[in-house]
Design a protein that fits this description.
Length: 391
Amino acid sequence: MTYKDLIYVDNAATSWPKPQAMLEGMAYFNDRMGANPGRSGHRLSVEAARVVYGVRERLARLFNAPDALRVLLCANVTAGLNIALMGLLRPGQHAITSSMEHNSVMRPLRELQRSGVELSVVRCSSEGELDPQDVKNALRPNTRLIALNHASNVVGTRLPLREVGRFAREHGALLLADCAQTAGAYPLDMQEDLIDLLAFTGHKALYGPMGTGGLVLGERVDIQEMAPLQRGGTGSNSEQEEQPDFVPDKFESGTANAIGLAGLSASLDWIEAQGIERIQAHEQALAGRLMDGLAAIDGLKLYGPRDSRRGSPVISFTLDGLDNGRVGRLLDERYGILCRVGLHCAPAAHRTIGTFPDGTVRFGLGYFNTDGQIDKVLGAVSEIADERRAA
């Protein structure tokens, strides 16, 4: 079996394959410029800086952000979330999150809690759904920030950002959205959805390379009150030994992953050409086909919402009597089906849906998956389930 024969359903971890345009964009950057953006005055450095700024403009347009300069670029969504959480929260302030969060949110918040930040974790349902009224009830006079994922990386459930954002604004708090699973695959509008800070990654549904991501700051975020996560060279105000106080330089120190951002830029153009609505419709149809087929397999338990329109195309299940790791190995070694098993860096989410500590088998679908692949996945899982019953 060659790599071309593999069925990749691990897109919730990282998307694959990538658009050819991404590879061409990176090759073009490497061949034609390759210089350090914003660090020199020669033509290649200027061209590289134009590429980086072009990414900011594309992302600002994609998310309806107020200002391209408020699009902060970093290595991944984890770095973006840390910039937001560590930069905004102070001892004595209060933060709210949900019980469906990834460790990229939970671990920084737990560290801040040890430093004196108060934390409330609002319980979600066993399907991963959040009642926005529960968030409202958790608000306190000192609530500074509400941090929620847009869609669970375990069961795909989307959380009600707009409703929570309304409560946040009424209270004077900020809403931070972890859009790792939805940026690029689901329409996001910072203005309409009342998102104050949007964290994203480039290597998942934006179909860019690893090592790209960032944080978008809305108009309600006061950059003077926000501390940078790291400090160092920015190529600006080089005569000063203090960190610049303007965006994006205040939060971007060190050489950018310019070749990766060139690839992300090309992927963003590709997404715009496909249309997010088309991408979303295709993935939802695949998810519905897969969920319907899995639900018909005896001894298989599905987790999360059964309506593919209510979430991202992430599907978790377990098979009675079979270890999740064994299921994943059989799918890989026997059928060439690549998925992810375990806790998915989200133990709180698995506690919520009742699958801790064993976790689940997870399928993450993407734009390049096909109906034929879904049917092969269903056939493979059905065969594994039949063998379990016959044993």
